[in-house]
Amino acid sequence: MEKNERCLSCSDCGLYHCDKQDKHYPEFCPTVATSEEELREIGELYMHDPTDSVVFRAAAAVEGETYGKITRVEEVVRFAKKIGAKKIGVVSCMGLINEAKTFTKVLQANGLDYICIACKTGAQDKSKYGIPEEGKIHPGQYEASCNPILQARIMNRAKTDLNVIVGLCVGHDSLFMKHSDAIVTTLVAKDRVLLHNPAAALYGSGFYYRRIFEEIK
Question: In total, how many domains does the chain have?
Fold first, then answer.
Protein backbone atom coordinates (compact mmCIF):
# COMPACT_ATOMS: atom_id res chain seq x y z
CA MET A 1 0.00 0.00 0.00
CA GLU A 2 1.27 3.49 -0.88
CA LYS A 3 2.12 5.69 2.09
CA ASN A 4 -0.87 8.02 1.58
CA GLU A 5 -3.27 5.42 0.20
CA ARG A 6 -6.42 5.23 2.28
CA CYS A 7 -7.42 1.85 3.66
CA LEU A 8 -10.82 0.82 2.28
CA SER A 9 -13.41 -0.13 4.87
CA CYS A 10 -17.14 -0.53 5.49
CA SER A 11 -18.08 3.00 4.35
CA ASP A 12 -16.73 2.08 0.90
CA CYS A 13 -18.95 -1.01 0.62
CA GLY A 14 -22.30 -1.23 -1.14
CA LEU A 15 -22.85 -4.97 -0.79
CA TYR A 16 -23.27 -5.50 2.96
CA HIS A 17 -23.01 -9.25 2.56
CA CYS A 18 -22.14 -9.48 6.25
CA ASP A 19 -25.66 -8.36 7.13
CA LYS A 20 -27.75 -10.59 4.83
CA GLN A 21 -25.34 -13.25 3.53
CA ASP A 22 -26.91 -12.93 0.08
CA LYS A 23 -24.04 -11.50 -2.05
CA HIS A 24 -20.29 -11.74 -1.55
CA TYR A 25 -17.58 -9.94 0.37
CA PRO A 26 -15.47 -7.35 -1.46
CA GLU A 27 -11.74 -8.00 -1.35
CA PHE A 28 -11.12 -5.18 1.16
CA CYS A 29 -13.82 -6.36 3.59
CA PRO A 30 -12.60 -6.51 7.20
CA THR A 31 -14.54 -9.75 7.61
CA VAL A 32 -12.31 -11.34 4.98
CA ALA A 33 -9.24 -10.08 6.82
CA THR A 34 -10.44 -11.43 10.18
CA SER A 35 -9.10 -14.85 11.03
CA GLU A 36 -11.26 -17.69 12.28
CA GLU A 37 -9.02 -17.81 15.34
CA GLU A 38 -9.85 -14.19 16.24
CA LEU A 39 -13.56 -14.78 15.68
CA ARG A 40 -13.41 -17.78 18.00
CA GLU A 41 -11.54 -15.74 20.60
CA ILE A 42 -14.17 -12.97 20.47
CA GLY A 43 -16.92 -15.56 20.54
CA GLU A 44 -15.49 -16.88 23.80
CA LEU A 45 -15.78 -13.40 25.29
CA TYR A 46 -19.40 -13.05 24.17
CA MET A 47 -20.20 -16.51 25.50
CA HIS A 48 -18.20 -16.76 28.71
CA ASP A 49 -16.59 -13.52 29.87
CA PRO A 50 -18.24 -12.46 33.17
CA THR A 51 -18.92 -8.92 31.93
CA ASP A 52 -18.90 -9.10 28.14
CA SER A 53 -21.29 -12.04 27.94
CA VAL A 54 -23.87 -10.36 30.19
CA VAL A 55 -23.69 -7.05 28.33
CA PHE A 56 -23.74 -8.69 24.91
CA ARG A 57 -26.78 -10.84 25.66
CA ALA A 58 -28.64 -7.98 27.32
CA ALA A 59 -28.03 -5.71 24.34
CA ALA A 60 -29.24 -8.40 21.94
CA ALA A 61 -32.31 -9.04 24.07
CA VAL A 62 -33.28 -5.36 24.19
CA GLU A 63 -32.91 -5.11 20.43
CA GLY A 64 -34.72 -8.36 19.70
CA GLU A 65 -37.63 -7.83 22.08
CA THR A 66 -38.42 -4.16 21.46
CA TYR A 67 -36.98 -3.22 18.05
CA GLY A 68 -38.67 -0.02 16.89
CA LYS A 69 -41.20 -0.18 19.72
CA ILE A 70 -39.69 1.79 22.61
CA THR A 71 -37.61 4.95 23.05
CA ARG A 72 -33.93 5.04 23.94
CA VAL A 73 -34.85 6.18 27.46
CA GLU A 74 -36.85 2.97 27.85
CA GLU A 75 -34.11 0.93 26.18
CA VAL A 76 -31.49 2.18 28.66
CA VAL A 77 -33.71 1.26 31.62
CA ARG A 78 -34.51 -2.13 30.14
CA PHE A 79 -30.82 -2.76 29.45
CA ALA A 80 -29.91 -1.77 33.02
CA LYS A 81 -32.39 -4.27 34.41
CA LYS A 82 -31.19 -7.05 32.13
CA ILE A 83 -27.57 -6.70 33.24
CA GLY A 84 -28.67 -6.65 36.87
CA ALA A 85 -27.59 -3.05 37.48
CA LYS A 86 -28.83 -1.67 40.78
CA LYS A 87 -27.11 1.73 40.95
CA ILE A 88 -27.05 3.92 37.85
CA GLY A 89 -24.62 6.80 37.41
CA VAL A 90 -26.05 9.70 35.45
CA VAL A 91 -23.34 12.06 34.17
CA SER A 92 -24.91 15.22 32.87
CA CYS A 93 -23.98 18.41 31.10
CA MET A 94 -25.21 21.45 33.06
CA GLY A 95 -27.10 22.42 29.91
CA LEU A 96 -29.15 19.23 30.15
CA ILE A 97 -29.51 18.99 33.91
CA ASN A 98 -33.32 19.24 33.70
CA GLU A 99 -33.38 16.34 31.26
CA ALA A 100 -31.09 14.42 33.61
CA LYS A 101 -33.45 15.13 36.50
CA THR A 102 -36.35 13.76 34.48
CA PHE A 103 -34.34 10.65 33.66
CA THR A 104 -33.55 10.07 37.35
CA LYS A 105 -37.29 10.14 38.02
CA VAL A 106 -37.69 7.45 35.37
CA LEU A 107 -35.01 5.38 37.10
CA GLN A 108 -36.71 5.86 40.46
CA ALA A 109 -40.06 4.82 39.01
CA ASN A 110 -38.38 1.61 37.91
CA GLY A 111 -36.91 0.82 41.31
CA LEU A 112 -33.34 1.73 40.34
CA ASP A 113 -30.97 3.63 42.62
CA TYR A 114 -28.99 6.45 41.04
CA ILE A 115 -26.41 9.15 41.52
CA CYS A 116 -26.36 12.19 39.23
CA ILE A 117 -23.19 14.26 38.80
CA ALA A 118 -23.11 17.44 36.69
CA CYS A 119 -20.15 18.38 34.51
CA LYS A 120 -19.12 21.46 36.50
CA THR A 121 -18.58 19.50 39.72
CA GLY A 122 -15.34 20.70 41.31
CA ALA A 123 -16.06 24.30 40.22
CA GLN A 124 -12.66 25.39 38.91
CA ASP A 125 -12.13 28.21 36.45
CA LYS A 126 -10.88 26.96 33.09
CA SER A 127 -7.71 29.02 33.49
CA LYS A 128 -6.64 26.81 36.41
CA TYR A 129 -6.44 23.88 33.99
CA GLY A 130 -4.40 25.75 31.41
CA ILE A 131 -7.18 27.06 29.18
CA PRO A 132 -6.26 30.60 27.98
CA GLU A 133 -8.76 33.44 28.31
CA GLU A 134 -9.24 33.54 24.53
CA GLY A 135 -10.24 29.89 24.73
CA LYS A 136 -13.24 30.70 26.90
CA ILE A 137 -16.75 31.34 25.63
CA HIS A 138 -16.69 34.63 27.57
CA PRO A 139 -13.07 35.78 27.95
CA GLY A 140 -12.21 37.70 31.09
CA GLN A 141 -14.99 36.12 33.14
CA TYR A 142 -15.15 33.20 35.54
CA GLU A 143 -16.01 30.15 33.47
CA ALA A 144 -16.24 26.80 35.19
CA SER A 145 -14.44 23.94 33.52
CA CYS A 146 -16.14 20.65 32.83
CA ASN A 147 -14.56 17.90 34.93
CA PRO A 148 -15.23 14.48 33.38
CA ILE A 149 -12.39 12.78 35.26
CA LEU A 150 -13.85 13.91 38.58
CA GLN A 151 -17.29 12.77 37.42
CA ALA A 152 -15.82 9.33 36.69
CA ARG A 153 -14.00 9.15 40.01
CA ILE A 154 -17.15 10.01 41.94
CA MET A 155 -19.03 7.28 40.08
CA ASN A 156 -16.20 4.84 40.78
CA ARG A 157 -16.31 5.63 44.49
CA ALA A 158 -20.09 5.20 44.42
CA LYS A 159 -19.54 1.79 42.77
CA THR A 160 -22.14 2.34 40.08
CA ASP A 161 -23.11 -0.66 37.95
CA LEU A 162 -23.84 1.33 34.79
CA ASN A 163 -23.06 4.93 33.85
CA VAL A 164 -25.29 6.90 31.48
CA ILE A 165 -24.07 9.97 29.59
CA VAL A 166 -26.53 12.83 29.24
CA GLY A 167 -25.02 15.37 26.87
CA LEU A 168 -21.35 15.57 27.84
CA CYS A 169 -19.23 17.63 25.44
CA VAL A 170 -17.33 15.95 22.63
CA GLY A 171 -14.05 14.80 24.16
CA HIS A 172 -15.24 15.20 27.73
CA ASP A 173 -17.37 12.12 27.10
CA SER A 174 -14.20 10.36 25.91
CA LEU A 175 -12.36 11.20 29.12
CA PHE A 176 -15.29 10.07 31.22
CA MET A 177 -15.45 6.71 29.44
CA LYS A 178 -11.68 6.29 29.76
CA HIS A 179 -11.75 6.78 33.52
CA SER A 180 -15.04 5.03 34.34
CA ASP A 181 -14.81 1.66 36.09
CA ALA A 182 -18.39 0.74 35.15
CA ILE A 183 -19.58 0.21 31.61
CA VAL A 184 -20.97 3.31 29.90
CA THR A 185 -23.83 3.99 27.51
CA THR A 186 -25.05 7.25 25.99
CA LEU A 187 -28.58 8.53 26.40
CA VAL A 188 -28.07 11.97 24.84
CA ALA A 189 -25.32 13.04 22.42
CA LYS A 190 -24.86 16.79 22.70
CA ASP A 191 -25.48 19.02 19.68
CA ARG A 192 -26.17 22.58 20.76
CA VAL A 193 -27.24 23.65 17.25
CA LEU A 194 -29.48 20.71 16.36
CA LEU A 195 -31.20 20.26 19.73
CA HIS A 196 -29.08 17.20 20.53
CA ASN A 197 -29.88 15.36 17.30
CA PRO A 198 -26.43 15.23 15.64
CA ALA A 199 -27.64 12.87 12.91
CA ALA A 200 -29.71 15.75 11.48
CA ALA A 201 -26.52 17.22 9.98
CA LEU A 202 -26.02 13.95 8.09
CA TYR A 203 -29.65 13.81 6.98
CA GLY A 204 -29.40 17.40 5.76
CA SER A 205 -25.97 17.08 4.17
CA GLY A 206 -27.46 17.21 0.66
CA PHE A 207 -28.76 20.75 1.15
CA TYR A 208 -28.93 22.63 4.46
CA TYR A 209 -25.69 21.26 5.86
CA ARG A 210 -23.58 20.85 2.74
CA ARG A 211 -20.90 22.83 4.54
CA ILE A 212 -19.92 19.73 6.53
CA PHE A 213 -18.09 18.48 3.41
CA GLU A 214 -15.84 21.54 3.49
CA GLU A 215 -12.68 21.54 5.58
CA ILE A 216 -13.68 21.91 9.21
CA LYS A 217 -11.25 24.10 11.15
Answer: 1
